[in-house]
Amino acid sequence: MENLRDKTVGSFVTEDFRTAAVFTKYKIDFCCKGGKTINEVCLKQGIDTRVLLKKLNEVLLAEDSNVIDFNSWPLDLLADYIEKTHHRYVVDKSVIIMQFLNKLCNVHGGRHEELFKINELFNQCVTELSQHMKKEEQVLFPFIKNMVKAKERDEAVLQPPFGSVANPIAMMTHEHEVEGERFNEISNLTNNYTAPADGCTTYKVTFAMLREFEENLHTHIHLENNILFPKAVILEKEFS
Prior knowledge:
Distance between the termini: 39 Å
Number of strands: 0
Helix content: over 70%
Order of helices and strands: HHHHHHHH
Number of helices: 8
Radius of gyration: 20 Å
């Protein structure tokens, strides 16, 4: 049990994605700050380490044949999955959520001024994520796929214009942190996505969509920060 206290949050989720639900319940960031140890997050957030580890252990011991082991996937497959699943999710859902937020601002903004800030933050998130995903799809992911192909064929990999793969990864990781903080602010402004007493059905649906968007974003970032990016750095070193 003692050594598990020094294990990082991200490594728990990488080894068994079901543990993400436990960290989410305790509002522990397993994606952008997945490098923190159990001891560190518990100390910072005032969580009983023994209780958290007990909850994690219960999940780890439960049998579930439907668990997806993303950590075992080839990097090109994982990159394709992220693009086709999480990037498309952002594109599809953001339009709907922005429409709902605009409606809430028009109807309820007079009584709930925080809606305007929530709307502003979400629009900023969508704009930044759009540029972020383009950089991944047009620059970073193609290079990772080229490395996988080159290794399979026992060929050299062409030197990219950005130097080491660590350079765009550092940029992507920083941008992940920015969006993580932005959504943390949205979560606080929405009282953890809880509609006020006078909130209509549209209010509740909008907040539920925002919660789902954040959860999807956390999974998206986890797959990149804790699996795809570190393995891409290791793979690049094999060519040198």
